[in-house]
Amino acid sequence: MLLSDLLDSDAVDADGRRVGAVIDVRLEVSGAPRQLLADTVVTGLLVSPHSRFSTWGYERRDEDGPLLIARFQRWLHRGTFLVAWDDVERVDEGRVVFRRGYTARDAALPRAPRER
Amino acid sequence: MTENPDAFQTDAAPPPAGQVLDAHLHVLDRQVLDRDDVPVTTADDLELDGIEVGAPIEPGSPRPTVSAILTGPQLVMRLFGGHAPAARTIRIPWRLVSEVGTVIHLGVAGDALDATWAERWVSRHLIGRIPGGRHAPE
Amino acid sequence: MQASRRSRAASAAASAALVLAVPLLAGCASPEATFEAAVGQGVAATETARLVVDQQLDERTFTTTALATLGDARRELVAASGQVAGTDAASEAESETRTEVLDALDAALDAVNAARDAMASGVGSLEAVVPQLDAAADGLTALEQTVDADADSPADSPAGPAGSDG
Amino acid sequence: MSKLFAVALGILTAIGGFVDIGDLVTNAVVGSRFGMSLAWVVLIGVVGICIYAQMSGRVAAVSGRATFEIIRERLGPRAGLANLAASFLINLLTVTAEIGGVALALQLATSVAPGWWIPVAAFGVWIVIWRARFKLLENVTGLLGLTLIVFAVALFMLSPDWGQLAGQALQPGPPSDEPVATYWFYAVALFGAAMTPYEVFFFSSGAIEEQWTKQDLAKSRLNVLVGFPLGGLLSLAIAGCAAVVLLPQAIDVTSLSQVVLPVAEAGGKVALAFVIVGILAATFGAALETTLSSGYTLAQYFGWSWGKFRKPAKAARFHLSMIIALLIAVAILATGVDPILVTEYSVVFSAVALPLTYLPILIIANDREYMGDEVNGRAMNFVGQVYLVIILAAAIAAIPLLIVTGAGA
Questions:
Q1: Which of B119, C22, D107, D269 is the most buried (most CB within 10 A)?
Q2: D3-19 pLDDT, tens digit each
Q3: Cα distance from D310 to chain B (closest Cα, Å)?
Q4: D contacts of A63 (beta carbons < 8 Å)
């Protein structure tokens, strides 16, 4: 499975109702430890109800500059939520189905650690 | 920030155990550098292990993992759609990644990777043969 | 990204069409507009030649630079003549104007060639070319008014993009 | 002297934007047809490029990422490719024009037809890129390009009616004998030249070639604040000289030889010698800038190894793409096309490349993961967004204006 196949898929609930589009896949470097980096696991999918255009993360981070672009992006991706991988029932071609009673979580990213 | 609070119920995400990355935002299309900071390629796509198309996922089954950075023909696929034959894709195994920041750092030398064959070919057969090609500029 | 991709393709096609359309548009200018542009071009080239000959006589420029300048002026005059000669006159008056313009451009070309000869190979004196250049420039400037008046006459269709009918 | 060398990158970058062969002629055309009535555009352009060049330089110094890497990362492969194609074509057309320009400048010095100089010029550009260190390349061309200041000196020596020039500059609008559309076409062309994307590609990549870090931010600012206003000043001086000497004589500029007429008029052979050296350095420098930019953009989009600080064999595809670009340029020139005319069509591609270049720079300059504490302040963001709107307007207007005016005829 390729990441690009998952991105842009329709997100559908157990009743077949479309709830948005998968705009990103949340990863966590927390799996089995390896020589360099621990295994990177998929922890959830980010779903935007209103737009499938690729985003710059304004709706998930507390960046707010430049103002107009930040505002527009937040509006475009208003109501973006995170669905944990455990709440995913099936992945089809171009479609992801969530389990009945799945939880829509806050999409916010933890404050990113500063690299370098 | 949320204009439409009734649309779904929001819980706080559980506290993360390790570094949290959004694949599209933080990994895709970023520069891949080798151990010595030499550019290798751009992360054109990621390969995810443990997702079977169309098969129901049993509750409690292990979560999928990132298995490789894909490049080469994969860029064309992302530009124009479609799938490259698996044999033609160029993979950089994820276990070679040492750090993910604004660039993706590998823990190995780039020369050993399939991803650099075109660079090596051009270097060996064309650029390296022009006088001065193997010397630093003065 | 699908929608934006389609619009990009469309805009690429449009700009390609534009690049092709520009020379076509320029080619469809009315005879008056062509004459006017050619005379303007001729005036500019002749005045340039006069200026650089003055500079050469004052020893303010290098002979190499002056020769290159005269070469450019000559090229402009040849191009202007070519434009005019390639125009189909629709009326007696137009055909008359065309002859006048061509004659004036020829006179200017002769003057510029004489200046080049004098400068490059010492054939004739450069001072002697100055009145010839003056006369050619005056002739073209005088024509500029005639052609302009023609272009403004009510019988003519509005000038094309090349015409400045202000 | 070492202070001067410290700003060589800014000066060379600005020379490529403001006084390369296309702009030398465009500035003189503008002066000979519109006087100083388009000076305001140069002013707006200088401020705009200062802001965005500074942003791209800051991003490069702090995060180590050059501009086209950022474009690929923020816009994704498709919009990034659209920008790459447009920017690459601009680079290619400009390389072509500059090599032709070097040949034309050599013709002014020798009166040998430019056709003979074209292969020499192209080989010269290649050998410098192949063998010379980046620092050497920018110091020599930047320093020699400074002799173009003779245009400003010439303007003073012509002792023009300053009141009249100022009057033209303060009353924007076309003269009575020029159509309004033509005036705006040149306004867009001048603005596009001032903000041409290869400036930020070259400036940010040059910052990485010189291995700037966070400690070099003041240096970056100095480069921007010296280089681009200087470029704008030269551009105005060229237009001013043409307005004083050529406009009254009804000489519409069409060739490089006419551009230097006012300088010879003012300062005789000495000034002329300076201006020819300056034009040679400027066109050669711009040829280096655009050739390198074509390599930088391709390499950064695809993630290839690049940079003159590496041995050519260690940045093989980067060097190969520049060799190919130079060969294409020579092939285009071999058809006998007028090199100056070539640059006029790059306006079309600027319409795509300008917004797609400056938007990602503005976004990344606000991203704390890249910039840490060095993110844009509010004032910078405000001006940056205003300019984004201006850029968009110019980009949208460029193509219709090009058609309506027949490329400013």
A1: B119
A2: 778 899 999 999 988 99
A3: 6
A4: 366-368
